[in-house]
Design goal:
Layout: E1 2-6, H1 10-17, E2 21-27, E3 43-48, H2 54-72, E4 81-85, H3 91-102, H4 109-119, H5 127-137, H6 142-148, E5 162-164
């Protein structure tokens, strides 16, 4: 299962679900929280700058997608992962979508996107992060198409924590 949260809700989500891994995606101004009992190798901290040009934004998104996928290489199938960003809406839901797609056979991307939206109506996965992950995972554009086909998300300033199981679980 993948748990998605805002920065403000991350500690509570960790306490409630006790995931095996955590991905923190926060700005350079924010400090990624520590989680009691979670070893450093099971906590990926991704910091983002306030990139100001298309080239630096694109480069940063590619690097983040690569880091997320690399971090998952040692993950045990089925282990719970908490992913959070500042608001729990875009970067964290993109990472959750990437995690679920990586754990599921190709061709299930649309079903995963729909499951993500059902669990988190506010989910608005970052398209650039998803597009690079799609390329890295060899999904032939299906990940991008799946999030583009979603209806508009509901509006929220800071999202509540939600748990998302892969389709079929």
């Amino acid at each position: 299962m993948v748990i998605v949260s805002s920065l403000a809700g991350a500690a509570g989500a960790y306490d409630r679900y006790r995931p095996a891994r955590v991905i923190s995606i926060v700005s350079e101004e924010d400090l990624a929280p520590s989680f009691p009992g979670l070893s450093a190798e099971r906590h990926l901290r991704l910091y983002f700058a306030r990139e100001s040009c298309a080239l630096s934004i694109s480069k940063a998104a590619r690097e983040r997608a690569e880091e997320i996928i690399r971090f998952l290489k040692d993950a045990v199938p089925g282990e719970d992962i908490l992913v959070h960003c500042s608001r729990g809406v875009s970067r964290s839901t993109a990472a959750a979508f990437i995690i679920l797609c990586r754990a599921t056979e190709p061709g299930k991307e649309a079903a995963i996107a729909k499951a993500l939206r059902r669990a988190a109506p506010f989910a608005d996965p970052c398209p650039l992060l998803v597009s690079y992950a799609d390329e890295i995972l060899g999904r032939g554009g299906r990940m991008v198409e799946a999030i583009e086909d979603l209806p508009p998300p509901s509006s929220v300033i800071s999202a509540p924590a939600v748990a998302i199981a892969p389709p079929g679980d």
